[in-house]
Design goal:
The chain has 133 residues and is mainly alpha-helical. Helix 1 runs antiparallel to helix 6, helix 4 packs antiparallel against helix 5 and helix 5 packs across helix 6. The model has no long low-confidence stretch (mean pLDDT 87).
Length: 133
């Protein structure tokens, strides 16, 4: 189970990185009309999805995942809080416009994040976190 957990963390880090970098490649990935439609992402938002808070939040996700890779108990708690915070902020992000690739990566990130939270609190990995408290 330890190997699965560690590989899951590594894959989640790669997926988070891909998700953060995808907007840079939208023009190459999608045609002109789709690219224009993607420009509506965040329209009407009370919390700008590209605001100054987005990079620090992404960095905190990355740091917590790296900490979880080394079974740091603070990282497990931080990751859970960040995941809850991310869900709580979604209603304020305005209109969501994303391409098929973005949607797929976003879904995978959510699935893997949930699996990591479950494995860190409910599996034998939980004991490893308790040892590194």
């Amino acid at each position: 189970m330890e190997k699965v957990f560690k590989r899951g963390i590594e894959l989640t880090i790669v997926l988070y990185l891909a998700y953060c970098l995808l907007p840079i490649f939208w023009i190459e990935l999608y045609g002109g009309e789709v690219f224009q439609a993607l420009g509506w992402h965040g329209y009407g938002a009370s919390l700008n999805p590209y605001g100054t808070w987005a990079c620090p939040l992404a960095l905190l996700f990355f740091v917590s995942l790296v900490g979880m890779r080394f079974y740091k108990s603070w990282a497990r708690s931080a990751f859970l809080v960040l995941a809850i915070l991310n869900v709580a902020m979604q209603p304020f992000m305005g209109m969501v416009a994303m391409g098929s690739i973005d949607g797929t990566v976003s879904s995978l990130v959510g699935i893997f994040s949930g699996a990591l939270i479950a494995m860190s609190f409910l599996s034998p990995n939980c004991e490893r976190f308790a040892k590194n408290a």
